[in-house]
Design goal:
By secondary structure, this protein is mostly beta strands. It is built from twelve helices and 50 strands. The strands form eight sheets. It has a 22-stranded antiparallel beta barrel. Helix 2 packs across helix 3. The longest helix has 20 residues. The protein is globular and about 100 Å long. It starts with 10 loop residues before the first helix and ends with a strand.
């Protein structure tokens, strides 16, 4: 019967209820959520709980990774459903090697978190982008990243390997996180990988929660205010003194050392500056402000110095830059005992500067990403429960910007005036001013979310914790060209000879599409490609009117001898008017009952039943996701308790804006002229010389991809140690793939190319994961040295019937063609998944701290082993190939022959050694030395082309060069705090 609807005040509620606590009380309260069941408050367990809390705090001080099942969004009680792969506390963040300081990289500590095979390759150590991760076999862009409860997902074009080209934003790598968040700002990072509460949506992988720390209240420092300033540095020099040891395939060493590419970084320097200020302006108003920046400078040659020895820029270098900035301020205000208000504002841009390789002239551009995130959260304790309301806004930007004077693309022949990248062995053409102009895509996302956690209700032996919530957001996403772009070289178009010098003033379009000087070699005799001369190549154009522009006096065959200049007589202009705007209203809600049943001497049973509803106007679809978790705890003391867990859940992912953005037709006009001094004349649209511009991708409404989950687990407390083992099965359906209209026998569409692509929900996936984690949950101390150990392993097997990237069509998957792989027949859909899925990994983290005089020393180690894996490599898809013919004789319907490239297991040892010393009244000076790959192991991780490009799907036949993880690398940090 009802016991007067008596509310149970849980430790979780003590944590969530707004109170005026000092810093030490806040820390204790925060950590108390990891104690035993929140409903158990009998006197006989009080002493045990206080002991547990004390032990947990000791472990936290040492840098404990809390890996017990966990769910908490600030409004719900937490139950032990093994929903978390682990929590990385602030102490662990401070004691572990931090590298670029991003969230993704630090998660290598946890099981069931997989990385791109090429993420830590030796050849690109100058990069600073946040690492992409896969959780529970899901797609790296289908995780839900949150910063203090606000979404920070990049839903623009994170499923593209790059977003370059005429209508791209210049992004070189896929990126799932909208912002580069520096971990020095955080109190903890929590990863949820199974049995995830219905209060979370918009993912089919996992949830990553980054929580900003609260300001300190201690009266030390300067009138209670505290500051921390640090500087961190590393560098690499493949030819000289270096803090980074490179492992490079000897076959590409020359290309690496003489790099002109963003894929090779033989030289780089990285500087990380962090500063923070925190304290209380009044007894009720706390403020924390932080600034951090990562600056990476990567000098590369403008043109290959081995071949470019006599041009005007021979031997010149130019810095590619990677620069991220993180400005963040957060306020905590407690106007009353029952009300807490949090407000935050963050500006987190990143600027990556590139230039076209091979000596392109004035071809610099900047790819900008990041943006702004702001929010207000109010938590009010009412008589019947806790209300949490958040209002948020985020602006996410992805932009390519360049010098507007050089937004054109031309192909000139080498001459006395065109000599900026002359080759002594090949007097061929050279790209100049290869700049596509300015493009931008962005999204504005205001969000309103409200949750309510009712006071627990006791009915007989059961306790019910009801919660519900709603949320709505408006998303305005735009992709547009910001500046005109002129393409001189197009459709086999090359410069033509002129018998008169170039004009000295711009033409009627404001251009001077002319270069004085005769080409060094006759384009009529110089071989270009396909064993054709430039002249023959132009004449082989499928465009008859382009052919007509290269005949008679305009042909090099007739005009080379008398030429004094070269000029273009056909151009195409792309204008800034083309724009896509997408308005989306997304909404959702959930209801959940987190209940417990007291079985007396038989233990405790806990069950969580939830239902989540979501919809949006983008795809005009609605989804309902049931969530069910069940656990049983044995009737033993917490110190020796065993818990059995089961779960059956559905998680719906998100449909990215790229599905609509790729359906993009550029506004353009083409012009022609008959002589170097003639005015340009616009060519009639839909003629051979100016065909209508069409889109290559047709957008249509899609179903929402989802993943069904079954999980089972067991966790044990064994004195000072805890061990957790669980199995997760994920079955993904309605997943999105790109296929050609021809493969689906779709009719031609006006405004689209003859070989246009469409999106399909034919994708499927399956993943089986087993993970084990063991650690001491209280400090082990020997001879004054405090120790914490964490051991974790995971085994993963995944299958997927589509390419996870959307750059090209997946017809092979759709048709499920017969192929030969590793000397055996196989259906294409059965091909192995070879990225973001090392079959087996093992990690051991050890943390040791001790005092010697005034010095406090820290020694942290991370030992990792990742099992062997294999990558699929194309041998041939040509029916005329001899090997293909041999297999075709046995299997007439094969579509290709592929081989297996095996990679050995990889072992690495990373270390941090540091100390801090109290100089005067808690004014602390500290030093950290991080050493990655202490043993300098040579771990081959993938393969690449000769230019360093590793690809993201099946490796082509040109992928013949080994790519290794970085060798031994040192990072040095010094800091001062008070």
């Amino acid at each position: 019967m009802l016991e007067g609807l008596r509310p149970l005040i849980t430790r979780e509620r003590e944590r969530a209820t707004p109170t005026q606590m000092d810093s030490s009380e806040s820390k204790k309260s925060d950590f108390a959520i990891y104690d035993s069941k929140v409903q158990d408050f009998s006197e006989k367990n009080a002493k045990s709980k206080e002991l547990t809390k004390s032990q947990d705090l000791q472990a936290k001080d040492l840098g404990k990774v809390v890996a017990k099942g966990y769910k908490d969004n600030g409004t719900q009680s937490r139950e032990r459903y093994q929903s978390s792969a682990g929590e990385i506390s602030r102490s662990m963040l401070e004691s572990s090697p931090s590298g670029n300081g991003d969230i993704g990289s630090i998660l290598r500590l946890l099981p069931n978190v997989q990385f791109d095979n090429a993420q830590n390759r030796s050849t690109t150590q100058g990069e600073i982008d946040p690492a992409n991760i896969s959780i529970s076999g899901g797609l790296f862009y289908q995780n839900n990243f949150q910063l203090d409860g606000f979404n920070v997902n990049n839903d623009l074009t994170s499923n593209l390997t790059s977003d370059n080209g005429v209508n791209g934003t210049g992004a070189k790598n896929p990126r799932s996180q909208a912002f580069s968040i520096d971990t020095s700002l955080l109190e903890s990072i929590i990863v949820q990988d199974s049995n995830i509460s219905a209060s979370y949506g918009g993912f089919s992988g996992g949830v990553v929660e980054a929580n900003v720390r609260k300001p300190r209240r201690e009266m030390s420092g300067i009138k209670g205010w505290h500051a921390n300033v640090s500087y961190q540095f590393t560098q690499g020099d493949a030819r000289g003194i270096s803090l980074t040891h490179y492992h490079i395939d000897p076959a590409i060493e020359s290309n690496f050392l003489n790099s002109t590419s963003e894929y090779y970084h033989p030289y780089f320097t990285k500087h990380l500056v962090r500063a923070s200020l925190e304290g209380y302006a009044t007894k009720d108003l706390g403020i924390i402000a932080s600034f951090s920046t990562t600056q990476s400078f990567i000098p590369t040659f403008v043109a290959n110095p081995l071949t470019n020895t006599s041009g005007q820029n021979a031997g010149d270098k130019k810095d590619q830059k990677r620069q991220s900035y993180n400005y963040y301020i957060k306020a905590y205000y407690n106007p009353t005992q029952n009300l807490t208000i949090e407000a935050n504002l963050g500006y987190m841009p990143q600027y990556n500067s590139y230039f076209w390789s091979g000596g392109a002239y004035n071809a610099d551009y900047v790819a900008q990403s990041g943006g702004t995130q702001a929010g207000i959260k109010a938590m009010y304790q009412t008589p019947i429960g806790l209300s949490t309301t958040t209002i948020g806004y985020s602006y996410i930007d992805s932009e390519r910007s360049a010098d507007s004077r050089y937004t054109y693309y031309a192909l000139w022949f080498v001459s006395d005036t065109v000599d900026w990248a002359r080759s002594d062995t090949n007097s061929a053409s050279i790209y100049t001013a290869a700049n596509y102009g300015n493009m931008r895509q962005n999204s504005h996302i205001p969000t309103l979310k409200s949750d309510f956690l009712f006071n627990p209700i006791v009915v007989w032996r059961t306790t019910h914790n009801f919660s519900l919530g709603v949320e709505v957001s408006y998303q305005k996403a735009t992709r547009q060209r910001l500046s005109p772009y002129v393409q001189f070289a197009n459709d086999n178009n090359i410069p033509v000879p002129s018998t008169t010098p170039c004009p000295t003033t711009p033409d009627n379009l404001g251009l001077i599409a002319c270069m004085n000087g005769k080409p060094t070699s006759n384009p009529n005799t110089t071989i270009y490609r396909n064993n054709q001369t430039y002249q023959d190549y132009a004449q082989s154009s499928r465009n008859e009117q382009v052919k007509s522009q290269h005949t008679g006096a305009n042909s090099w065959e007739n005009g080379y001898d008398s030429a004094v200049a070269q000029y273009f007589n056909v151009i195409t202009q792309y204008y800034g008017a083309n724009k896509i705007t997408l308005d989306n209203v997304a909404y959702g809600g959930f209801v959940e009952d987190d209940m417990s049943l007291d079985l007396g001497k038989f233990g405790d049973m806990n069950a969580r039943l939830g239902l989540r509803f979501e919809g949006d106007s983008y795809m005009d679809k609605h989804t309902i996701a049931p969530r069910f978790s069940l656990s049983y705890a044995t009737p033993t003391s917490k110190q020796w308790r065993t818990t059995l867990t089961f779960g059956a859940n559905r998680y719906y992912g998100r449909n990215l804006f790229s599905y609509r953005f790729l359906d993009f037709s550029a506004a353009r006009h083409s012009h022609k002229r008959d002589c170097v001094s003639c005015d340009w004349e616009e060519i009639e649209l839909n003629t051979a010389l100016n065909p209508a511009w069409t889109s290559s991708v047709k957008f249509s409404s899609l179903r929402i991809p989802y993943s069904d989950e079954l999980m089972g687990g067991i966790s044990n407390n064994l004195g000072k140690f805890s061990v957790g083992l669980k199995y997760i099965f994920r079955n993904g359906k309605n997943e999105i793939m790109r296929v050609s209209a021809n493969a689906l026998n779709l009719p031609a569409q006006e405004g689209y190319s003859t070989s246009y692509n469409v999106w399909s929900n034919e994708g499927k996936s399956q993943s089986h994961i087993i993970s084990l984690i063991a650690q001491n949950h209280s400090t082990i101390e020997t001879f004054g040295v405090k120790h914490h150990y964490l051991f974790a392993l995971d085994w993963t097997h995944s299958k997927r019937t589509y390419n996870i990237f959307a750059n090209s069509a997946d017809d092979e998957y759709l048709m499920d063609s017969l192929i030969i792989y590793d000397n055996a027949p196989m259906r294409y859909r059965d091909r192995p998944v070879d990225n973001f899925v090392r079959p087996f990994s093992l990690r051991l983290s050890t943390t040791h701290s001790f005092n010697i005089g005034k010095f406090r020393w820290l020694w942290n180690n991370l030992f990792r082993y990742r099992s062997p894996y294999s990558r699929m490599v194309t041998l041939t898809t040509s029916a005329s190939n001899a090997v293909f013919k041999q297999w075709q004789a046995l299997y007439p319907n094969i579509e290709g022959v592929y081989v297996k490239k095996n990679f050995r297991g990889a072992f690495s040892w990373d270390m941090r050694l540091g100390f801090e010393v109290d100089m005067w009244h808690k004014n602390i000076f500290y030093v950290n030395v991080d050493i990655y790959n202490v043993l300098n192991a040579r771990n081959e991780t993938t393969i690449s082309q000769s230019n360093g490009y590793t690809g993201y799907d099946i490796a082509g036949s040109s992928y013949t060069y080994a790519v290794y993880e970085v060798g031994r690398q040192f990072w040095l940090q010094v800091g001062y705090k008070f």
